[in-house]
Specification:
This protein is mostly beta strands and 123 residues long. It contains no helices and 11 strands.
Amino acid sequence: QVWLQETGGGSVQAGGSLRLSCKASGSTSKLYLRGWFRQPPGKEREGVAAIYYGSGNTEYADSVKGRFTVSHDIAEETSFLQMNNLKPEDTGTYYCAASYGGHWDQARMYLYWGYGTQVTVSS
């Protein structure tokens, strides 16, 4: 079993920054793909960013490129999502997820999910 716990959400004004963390515990050794997703109010869940634990390669949605940075601390089994220059359209519930692999932005590829953390950006 695997558990994921997100922290770091909150409310900020447009242009502000937040840093989300996702701590994993349990049988995580082969979960090489760690993703971040968000679900805006009334919309479907969408992929935001992901990192491959083996290579450190990263992926980003076009809407967040240049503003968000995903990273990880392998020893602490924690991934991070640094979000800068936040916009009102970044508002939503942010989830971290873990997968053995596959397309990074496909939610169905992820086996384990956190409960989510709320991010609210006001204009």
